[in-house]
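Fold sample X.
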Amino acid sequence: MIGLIARTPLAFLSYPLVLGFTIFTYVGVRFIGLQLPTGLLGLGWATMLFGNAMMILVSGLVSWRHYGARVAVFAVLNPAYWVLHSIADWRAAYQMARTPHVWEKTPHGLDEEESFAPPKAKAQRSSTPG
């Protein structure tokens, strides 16, 4: 069970490394003269493109089914989402290492003092002049 939970952050933490190796390989073969077998390069590019295309396709199909075509077109932005998610994971990992006892909460509209007050306290606050 822990493997299932830990894999998601680890996948996003490794995304910049994988992307960096891909870019380095492309630049190395094209401009630096890095010698790699052509079949290996082709297989690497095919795997990367197929994997990204499948994730975009699956996200598009699921969002089309649940929300319609207007939302499904945004599935093509998945690679940008992965980059942003990776940045957030690296930031969280840094914060966990630096200040492990600090929890940076995201406000979602329910963090207002008024939202958590019991109904009696809400009625009292609204009736007091002020």
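Fold sample Y, listed below.
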Amino acid sequence: MATPSAAGAGRARGSGLPPRQDAGGILPTVSLAGAAHLPYKIAWKLHLPLDGAVRFSEPHAMRTDVFAYGITPGQRMVLVDDEITTGRTLADLTCRLREAGAVPLAAVCLVEDTTRGARDLLTGLDLPLVSLTTIEGTA
């Protein structure tokens, strides 16, 4: 699913694989974490009174607020999702995680739509993107 460099990035001490939200990202996250023997976290569209909460936005969704929990300063992580189109959700998550002191190392996805600028946006945030496959064409 991921290149060796992305999988290896998550092997650093104290690292985990917190992905994005909804059911679409759960299967690739659990699969990658299981293959790498690493813990993982799932982000939810449910606000709970839990420690280490980080709120971020999924701008294209009907319910835009998403929450990741148990985020701690210095925690290294690889962000996982099923698909990336504009990159705005992962960009916002990356900024919010960094504000909380966490260290996003890279993003991994099953499918990247190369027509909407996600890679450039994430590269501008110094977040490498590894895609299993791409959809190419004109926007």
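Sample Y note: The mean pLDDT is 84.
Also: The longest strand covers residues 103-113.
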